[in-house]
Design goal:
By secondary structure, the protein is of the alpha/beta class. The protein has a domain of about 280 residues: 5-stranded Propeller (L-arginine/glycine Amidinotransferase, Chain A). The chain is about 30% helix and about 15% strand. It is built from 14 helices and 15 strands. The strands form five sheets. Strands 2-1-15 form a three-stranded mixed β-sheet. The longest helix has 17 residues. The structure holds N~2~-(3-carboxypropanoyl)-L-arginine. N~2~-(3-carboxypropanoyl)-L-arginine binds next to loops.
Length: about 400
């Protein structure tokens, strides 16, 4: 069947800015209202794709979602001339769709009981700005995965009352070989009906993970559902991909990642690499986004680790993989590292062929996109600039010139 992991990316939009919109995401909070560089953000994303391409990874690039979200403004009863709360302005211009690890759960056909690939857009109910993406993702996934004999696209889970689902950022798939049966960790922060007592909001609840497992027809003997440690969440680990990662039969995690960690580890037949507080203090792990590195197998079958550039200052002698560093400083300022920018899943040849070939990364597409970004994207943007009517005109022009094929969105 020739399964290969496909990585999905969405380019940051021309209105990428630092709105400080994610309470509990320390980087987003601390860089709030700083000057952002949308051009650099988009070029850095292309650099990430270029590096993955060098390792032979097939990738889909989706165009940025059109912003501003004028539908949201009218839904709230505002017209563009009204004085509007800065958070709402930031929300309608937000480029948060670029962090694809949170926008869906995808379970590959080699793992499911009905042999189909299942996709559920996340309900992203924890933050108002990200919740605006949900209807868009639903339409995009229905369009991309329209072949219903291969794919089942579900609606997002119901939201409200803290029933949070944030997709793949809280899941890890292990396997011996990519197309062989996977074993999963579905990590959660709290139960849906439990009182919330922590310092920061918790984004993933167990009952939402459980619903995804059930609707995706993933057998329960192929997974475990560990709970994130309160210590980690209170330190700013708002998704599991800030504190652990895995690929094939490797699992790399911080000593303080999970509740009842020792018990969990006895149940994992994997190569376990526990990173101690002494090797990498929790605080430093969060500051550098080390656990948001991407571990993958390149076309030669070698494991490769792609780590965000702040990790270059760490002593990582104990790592058994070669490391490559990537500069994603714009995305990192909003709390998104390499793994956050990516949604990955194994797909077989037939499934890969069912995706639009025009969306696959190539050197030519890279050149075309890079030219478009260099020509149209601003290199300086603050939330204050978002009020400028010229920005609106400029943004429309940029979107109209986008060389990527149009992907229909819910509000088009
Ligand atoms: O949801 N940041 C994103 C970052 C997502 C990171 N994803 C994973 N760890 N998987 C978020 O908090 C910041 C937007 C702003 O501040 O303008 C933001 O949405």
């Amino acid at each position: 069947m020739n399964y290969q992991e496909v990585f999905f990316h969405t380019l940051p939009g021309p209105t990428f800015h630092l709105g400080g919109l994610s309470y509990g995401n320390l980087a987003s909070m601390s860089h709030r209202y700083e000057v952002a560089n949308p051009k650099q953000a988009a070029l850095e994303s292309l650099d990430l794709m270029e590096q993955l391409h060098k390792w032979g990874v097939p990738q889909i690039i989706l165009p940025p979602h059109p912003r501003p979200l004028t539908t949201l403004l009218s839904q709230l009863g505002y017209s563009a001339e009204d004085p509007i709360n800065p958070h709402i302005i930031s929300t309608i211009y937000s480029s948060s769709f670029m962090w694809m690890a949170n926008v869906a759960s995808i379970t590959p056909s080699c793992d499911t009981l009905d042999g189909k690939c299942h996709i559920s857009p996340a309900n992203l109910q924890a933050t108002f700005h990200r919740n605006q993406e949900v209807a868009e993702w639903e339409t995009i996934f229905e369009t991309l995965f329209h072949n219903t004999s291969l794919f089942t696209t579900h609606p997002p889970l119901p939201s409200g009352g803290g029933f949070g689902d944030e997709g793949a950022g809280n899941q890890i798939r292990f396997c011996q070989e990519i197309g062989e049966k996977g074993f999963y960790l579905f990590v959660y922060g709290k139960r849906a009906f439990e009182a919330f007592t922590g310092r920061f909001p918790i984004r993933q609840v167990l009952e939402a993970s459980d619903a995804i497992i059930h609707r995706h027809k993933l057998p329960y003997d192929q997974l475990l559902t560990p709970r994130q440690s309160k210590r980690a969440i209170d330190a700013g680990v708002f998704h599991n991909d800030l504190i652990s990662f895995g690929h094939k039969n490797w699992f790399v995690f911080h000593e303080y990642a999970f509740e009842e960690q020792e018990n969990l580890l006895t149940r994992l037949p994997l190569n376990l690499l526990e990173v101690t507080e002494k090797q990498l203090p929790l605080r430093q792990a969060i500051d550098t986004y080390f656990f948001n590195s991407i571990l993958l197998t390149d076309q030669d079958g070698t494991l490769q680790l792609l780590a965000p550039s702040p990790c270059a200052s760490l002593n990582l002698d104990w790592l058994p993989f070669p490391i490559t560093f990537i500069d994603l400083s714009q995305s990192l300022k909003a709390g998104g590292g390499p793994a956050c920018l990516t949604l990955r899943t194994p797909l077989n040849t037939e499934e890969r062929n069912a995706l639009p070939s025009s969306l696959f990364y190539s050197d030519t597409l890279h050149k075309t996109l890079s030219h478009w970004i260099m020509t149209h994207y601003p290199d300086h943007l603050t939330p204050e600039d978002l009020k400028d009517p010229h920005l609106l005109t400029q943004t429309h022009t940029t979107y109209n010139a986008c060389p990527l094929p149009h992907v229909p969105l819910a509000h088009n």
